[in-house]
Design brief:
mainly alpha, two-stranded parallel ribbon, 3-stranded antiparallel beta sheet, RNA-binding, 549 residues
RNA sequence: GCCCCCAUCGUCUAGUGGCCGAGGAUAUCAGGUUCUCAUCCUGGAGACAGGGGUUCGACUCCCCUUGGGGGUACCA
């Protein structure tokens, strides 16, 4: 009985994979895996103007990073390819012709301007715009003539009018659209490419898709698509499930415009920004930067990222790669995304992909939209870092360090594993990176944070304590963390100080900030020689102008 | 404007007429542990949008209002 489930993810390659798309892909993939079905990846590149050549590639990389592998699609092939719509033109043409021959579709020769005027008129008449279907359909000859005259030639589907269009939706139940609600829509553009609403129907049929899981923004397209499906004689409809949409926690829609917007606002608020330098960092001319700040234009992503990094402005993550670069684990993303608009029905939240697959059920999709809460995401990531095996974490960390170009890449596996161990409790891979960098910098490359110096070195005899610590360290012949700990603790006790008063000056001396892995591990890993050198540097550098004795 | 969808703690959600004096997570607050950051532990506060019905009984069903989202393209 039950036919094999076939689901698909059909992104248009206009940019990086963003969280919304990732979630759609995930749900489709989860259902396929749950049921032992097939997951198809199809690239919807029918818009000549908007496709970026590298985008499809990027989307696939991001899917793979998440662990979402497709059974049919680009790069892997399959029986129903090609999987790029731009390579399926003959297929669409065939069906357009069929519809034309059966008088279920017709040619149109309107210019965009004419259409625009009709639309405005309809608005003025306070009605929805419905294309006025001609009593007599133009013939192939008319179309040729129009083309010869340089008129645009499109093909419209004659949507069956006068009947209620009913959509059965898996998550929303029955949805009805009144007759006349859906106007005749274009199925073939004047450049010969199919429109989304057409290509999607043809492909879902020929790729034998059984379940269409997509965002609710497609709900209103569905009656038209289903009418088309019937007109084409495609037989039984796939099941449709329209998921709730995810909105951003930084207000409004989760859109790629958020990042430039955040940066723009930051530039506006920040005092004394060196605009020339900034333009240089972003590889922009001053005029281009100016126009960006004024909100007139938006530079490309690498430019935005570079400027944000330079200014130290955190941008909200929106693309999957952004989350990767912020140090999130793919396990976290999959887990978190799965729980946006779905839940297993019990109180489980932290789940591995295997558990998600096992528990997944379309019947448990949520109807209402949800906010993407980055705070909760961090909590999830902390949890996943904690539960991931050291080996796996090491793999993730290495990949991460390489991509973000951290000096920590210099470490070998053993050392990285050690770092992972002593950074227990880290919330992101970025935390581990940040805390570890001091080990991989030259001692003269250490930047001493102003605040840290003032607070721990120049106050409470910080430098004096540091000098004592220095001598004690120098006198040690065994440089294990146990020895270091014993020494520091007994010193603190002897001086009637809290351990912090002893540890903090040392910490600032070796890494320039008040934050590092546990001090005993940090010192041991740095090594005796380098530790002493950095302390000496510090003493020298701040000893004079400080008020240390 | 018109059409479609949605509505439980700040947020993600459990809840399918009595088990709910509404459960979990996260955020937040108060304590505690700790050499920093983080982790960790204990406790607190916090929600059924409003109004009508239906019913012996509504968070759960129906209607209206309000609020949010989406669509209204030769974008997908």
């Amino acid at each position: 009985m039950a036919e094999k489930v076939v689901t698909r993810f059909a992104p248009s390659p206009t940019g990086y994979l963003h969280v919304g798309g990732a979630r759609t892909a995930l749900f489709n993939w989860l259902l396929a895996r749950r049921t032992g079905g097939t997951f198809v990846l199809r690239i919807e590149d029918t818009d000549q103007k908007r496709n970026t050549p590298t985008a499809a590639r990027q989307v696939m990389d991001d899917l793979r990073w998440l662990g979402i592998e497709w059974d049919e699609g680009p790069q892997v092939g399959g029986p129903n390819g090609p999987y790029l719509q731009s390579e399926r033109r003959e297929i669409y043409d065939k069906y357009v012709k069929q519809l034309l021959d059966e008088k279920k579709a017709y040619y149109c020769f309107d210019t965009p301007e004419e259409l625009e005027a009709q639309r405005r008129q309809a608005e003025a008449d306070k009605g929805g715009f419905l294309y006025a279907r001609p009593a007599e359909f133009p013939t192939d000859r008319d179309a040729e003539q129009a083309r010869a005259q340089g008129k645009p030639v499109t093909v419209r589907f004659a949507v069956p009018q006068g009947e209620l269009l009913v959509v059965q939706d898996v998550v929303r139940g029955e949805i009805t659209f009144a007759p006349g609600e859906i106007g005749d829509f274009i199925i073939q553009k004047s450049d010969g490419f199919p429109t989304y609403n057409f290509a999607c129907v043809v492909d879902d049929y020929s790729m034998k898709i059984t379940h269409v899981i997509r965002g609710q923004e497609h709900l209103n397209n569905t009656p038209g698509q289903q009418a088309l499906w019937r007109a084409l004689g495609f037989g039984e409809l796939p099941k449709y499930a329209h998921m709730s949409v995810t909105v951003s926690d930084s207000g409004g829609k989760l859109s790629k415009r958020e990042r430039p917007k955040t940066l723009r606002n930051a530039i506006g608020t920040l005092q004394d920004v060196d605009l020339d330098k900034l333009a240089d960092i972003g590889k922009l001319t001053c005029d281009e930067l100016d126009s960006f700040v004024k909100g007139e234009t938006t530079p490309d992503m690498p430019s935005i990222d570079a400027m944000a990094q330079y200014l130290g402005v955190p941008l909200p993550e929106i693309n999957i790669v952004d989350f990767f670069k912020s140090g999130y684990l793919p396990e976290t993303m999959v887990n978190f995304l799965a729980l946006l608009g779905w839940n297993p029905g019990d109180n489980r939240e932290i789940m591995l992909v295997g558990e998600l697959i096992e528990a997944f059920d379309l019947a448990r999709l949520t109807k209402s939209n949800s906010l993407f809460d980055r705070k909760k995401l961090i909590a999830f990531n902390t949890e996943h870092i904690k539960m991931t095996s050291p080996e796996k974490l090491l793999r993730h960390l290495k990949h991460y360090l390489k991509v973000v170009d951290s000096p920590v890449v210099a470490a070998d596996d053993e050392r990285l594993s050690e770092l992972i161990r002593i950074c227990e409790g880290a919330r992101t891979l970025a935390d581990i990176d940040r805390k570890s960098r001091f080990l991989f910098l030259d001692s003269d490359a250490i930047e001493y944070e102003d605040k840290a110096v003032k607070k721990v070195l120049l106050k409470n005899d910080g430098l004096a304590v540091l000098a004592v610590v220095r001598d004690k360290l120098a006198a040690m012949n065994e440089f294990t963390e146990e020895q270091i700990e014993n020494m520091l603790r007994s010193l603190a006790e002897k001086k009637q100080l809290g351990l912090g008063k002893v540890a903090q000056p040392l910490r600032v001396a070796i890494c320039g900030t008040t934050v590092s892995p546990p001090i005993f591990d940090s010192v041991r890993m740095l090594g005796k020689e380098e530790t002493l050198a950095r302390i000496d540097n510090t003493l020298e550098k701040f000893g004079r102008d400080g008020k240390a004795e």
